[in-house]
Design goal:
The chain has 299 residues and is of the alpha+beta class. The chain has two domains: 2-155 and 289-298, Ribosomal Protein S5, domain 2; 161-287, GHMP kinase, C-terminal domain (Alpha-Beta Plaits), CATH 3.30.70. The protein has helices at 57-68, 92-107, 114-125, 131-136, 173-178, 186-205, 211-214, 231-240, 264-277, and strands at residues 2-11, 20-34, 39-44, 76-82, 139-145, 148-155, 161-167, 245-248, 255-259, 282-287, 295-298. The structure holds adenosine-5'-diphosphate and the ligand N[C@@H](CCOP(=O)(O)O)C(=O)O. This is Homoserine kinase.
Length: 299
Amino acid sequence: MFQVKVPATSANLGPGFDCMGLALRLYNYIQAEESEKLEIILKGTYTSNIPANEKNLLWKTACKLWQKIDFQPRPLKITLESHVPPARGLGSSSTAVVGGLIIANAVAGNPLNRLQLLEVASEIEGHPDNVSPALCGGITLTVMDENKLIPRTLAKFPKFKAVVVIPDILVETEKARGILPASVSRTDVIFNASRVGLLVDAFIKEEYDLLAIATQDRIHQNQRASLIPGMPEALKSAVLAGAYGAALSGSGPTLIAFCPHGKEDQIALTMKGVLQENGLPSEALTLDIDSEGAVLTEF
Ligand SMILES: Nc1ncnc2c1ncn2[C@@H]1O[C@H](COP(=O)(O)OP(=O)(O)O)[C@@H](O)[C@H]1O
Ligand SMILES: N[C@@H](CCOP(=O)(O)O)C(=O)O
């Protein structure tokens, strides 16, 4: 029997669209054992809208890996204990992809290493920004060069807390990607590229006062504002309430604020208030950054 613990993730961190992300100490747990037939049991806080049959993303991912390595599929009894809310911009689908790959690899005797798993995970997700921190932990930047990935961990133990404010609506990643324009202007590319550089440097040197500028974005956040009423105002309010910086988490609707210790509650209240004024109720969690990434245990 195998168990994998996979962290939630927050992708983009403002300007790092499709390449930056971080892992959060909020987890989905997956247990798997060999069985006569496929069985998927859903447990935990979030079980709706997740198929408990062969259409489940975790199972489909496991089958893809076995096909790639030419391994005969094995029926499994899988128990998914979900604490990461799906379709909220906290990398729930990446927990399924990463969990499915780690389980399938373990069942096959672990022929692939973490970088190889990351490459398959990124191919399935279509972008490496969630799967990289989900596998490796910490704050990551991942460069795609054709089919090769160059993952970098920028920090494992940053000295800030993450406040995630989770609006009470669902935003499917596919839809939130579909509304983005196909091209961006040179001015906006320069705006984002310069801030990604600053963001990387600020995380490495722990110069968090730079995050208010370094988390600014021009290529996806405001373009998604129609899906999340009050989002730009709530991000600004986080910084006014004392956050180092704030960003849309993944494709939303969750917002993430990077907070000095002691200011988390005030920042969460302020952001929730702004969303509520725009008709959007939300809940807030204060989380630490996960430093380990996915952990496999064999019983
Ligand atoms: N914990 C999970 N287990 C299995 N499948 C999941 C899980 N979370 C999400 N999915 C699947 O991933 C797909 C897309 O989810 P997505 O909108 O990307 O969510 P998120 O933004 O949380 O990653 C959906 O088909 C959903 O069924
Ligand atoms: N870079 C992607 C990240 C999607 O993350 P998710 O947690 O919303 O699935 C994007 O912004 O589309």
